[in-house]
Every structure is written in C-alpha cells, then in structure tokens.
# Entry
Amino acid sequence: MRDLVRQLEDVARLLDDVGSLPPLSITFTCDGDGGPYVILETPNQLPLADQRMAVDQIAARVHAVPKVGEVLMGRYGASARGRWEDTLVVAVTNAAPHVPGMPALPERTTTTQETAGALRALTAWAGTTESHMDELVVTDQSRSHTVHVITENDHAAHSLLEGLIPDTESRWHRPGRRYRALLPTGHSLSVTVDPIR
# Structure
C-alpha cells in the first residue's frame, strides 16, 4: 500500500537536495509488482545530453548507477533506480522522437524549488483523496505546474473533484472521460477515467 503524502514529501526533499534540474514530469504510481514507485522524467524536447545530466544528478542522490540503452528503435535513453528515504525513485530520459511541428519548450520561468513547493502544497488534498487515484502526475510545464490524475471509474473521479471549482465541462475522450477543476493550491487539475487500466 502506498503512502502518497509520504511520497510527495520524500520527492520534494529529493528535489531540494538535487538542486537545479530541467522541467520534470513526476508520476506517482499505484502498487505495481515491485510496490509503488515514483517516475521522474525529463521532457523529450531537451537534447539527450541535458536529459542524461538530470538523470545522473538524481542517480547520485539515490545511490544508483545510471543505465544507458536502446529504448526505441534507434533511440537511446538513460535511467536510474534507487531509494530516497522511504520512496523508490526511477529517473528516466524521454526518448520519444521530436515530431516536426511539436512546440519547443517555452522559456522557463519555473524552478526546481517551485516544483518541490508544488508537491508539498498537494499533500493536504492528496491525503484525503489518494484512495481514488491510480496515478498522480505533476508536470512542470516551464511556466506553471499542472496536476493530472488517472482513475478507473466515474465514481472515483467525482470523489476527487468533490469541493473543487469546475474548470470546464467534462468531455468524452478515448478511452474514457476527462474532467477539469481548480485545486485549492491554485493548480489546474485534470482527471482521466480509464476503465481498462
């Protein structure tokens, strides 16, 4: 059983300790085969060398040796897996190809310390709603932080949204529904219902 609040606090302390990193997407997973873990992923718009540097910085803090290998045909990436306090952390580069027309990262106004602050700010809300989450993703979009939750049914989604200010109308998408709201922290929240997870 995961303790999401503890994971949020642990990763916030890790970011404090690591120092400056590129914008990250941080995914708090549900129980997997090896137990719950947290994925810290660099954006694919960055050159691989810059992504690798971030993985190396995290690896040094979690006492892990980065591994490099082919993750997609002809595309290489790096990863590191280790523990920080009570949380299993996996740092990875994003090897997705940069598709023509894909926007570049906007000029960054956020900081790694602000990402740590966003994680801490989410602990009160997450502590009361974590039983309804399959996955929580906090993403540094370079100018702001967004929060995305994946859950398996509409009942869980409604429980997550209870007491929040709806942002837009819900809409259908594949494979389920998506809802949007504003969190008490001021962050934008999107909730996806994915019944086939």
Summary: Helices lie at 4-18, 48-61, 112-121, 123-129, 154-161. The longest strand covers residues 75-84. The chain has a mean pLDDT of 88. The beta strands are 25-29, 38-41, 67-72, 75-84, 87-92, 135-140, 145-151, 165-172, 177-182, 188-193.
